Amino acid sequence: MRRSELDDTLTGLASRDPEVRDGRALPTLLAAVQAGLDADDAAHVAAVALERLDHPETQARTFAPLVIAALVESGRFDPTWWQRVARWWVGEHDLRGHDDGLGWLHAVAHGADLVATCAAARVVDPGDLLDATVARCIEPTDTVWRDQEDDRVAHALVQVVAHPDLTADRLVAGLSPVRRMFESGEPGPVPAPATNTMHVLRSLVVALGQQPLWDDEPVRVPLADVAVAEACSLLALVTPWSWRPA
């Protein structure tokens, strides 16, 4: 793909028209990355994607992680990519999954997809991935995730837990902010971050109780029992009237 065509595709990836952005630009760019970009073009694509994280329009920001994830899957990686996306992901305020006019936005899900990709590719410390994911879950918001963001985040956590460099102690420590959030709960309506995190943990328990997958292939998760036990311990805090950990 010529640079001019690449730039046109990148422009389309910020379009407010979901058919242009999601229907044409995204698959075209993913195919180009998969086919192989030279080093200069890959660096250019990454630079544009990272600049988009500061774009004033939501749809432009939220598709940037998918571009970085594609580059990681293709074998490209720069540590600064993850650092910049992680800062954006945790701080992003527009957490709508779908908008009637703009189509899919999915900031939470797209960031989770990058977490999963980085974990599976073993290019980012799993503790850093865990910390960012937990931070995204507990970050104050009024938005309850409704478009399977919880499942995408849980899927990412499965890949993080499967990382061979993650220890049981680090896993439990990484989830400790969730424990503090649940333990500090007060009577009244459940805050959105607590609801979102409960949903993520329940999805995580289900996934780890079955055969986890990555790219349709089975994933071995040596710390699955530790993760399930800790998730259940956390969930028991919010449903003490229903069950207790076995």
Describe, in plain words, how this protein is organized in 3D.
It is a single chain. This protein is mostly helical. The protein has a domain at 126-246. It has 13 helices and 4 strands. The protein has a two-stranded antiparallel ribbon. Strands 3-4 form a two-stranded antiparallel sheet. The model has no long low-confidence stretch (mean pLDDT 97). Pfam families: DUF2785 (PF10978). It comes from Terracoccus luteus.
Topology:
Blueprint: H1 3-12, H2 18-35, H3 39-52, H4 58-62, H5 64-73, H6 79-91, E1 98-99, E2 103-104, H7 107-121, H8 126-138, H9 149-161, H10 168-174, H11 176-183, H12 192-208, E3 213-214, E4 217-218, H13 224-236
Antiparallel strand pairs: 1-2, 3-4
Helix pairs in contact: 1-2, 1-3, 2-5, 3-5, 5-7, 6-7, 6-8, 7-8, 7-9, 8-9, 9-12, 12-13
Structural class: mainly alpha
Characterize the main sheet: 2 strands, antiparallel
C-alpha Rg, in Å?
18 Å
Give the DSSP E fraction (strand runs of 2 or more residues): under 5%
The number of strands is 4
N-to-C span = 57 Å
Order of helices and strands: HHHHHHEEHHHHHHEEH
Q: Which overall shape is indicated by the principal axes computed on the Cα atoms?
A: globular
Helix content: 55-70%
Mean of pLDDT: 97
| Multimeric status of the protein | single chain
Q: Unreliable runs, pLDDT <50, ≥5 residues? A: none
What's the total helix number? Answer: 13
Strand order in the sheet with the most strands? 1-2
Protein name: DUF2785 domain-containing protein
Pfam families: DUF2785 (PF10978)
Organism: Terracoccus luteus
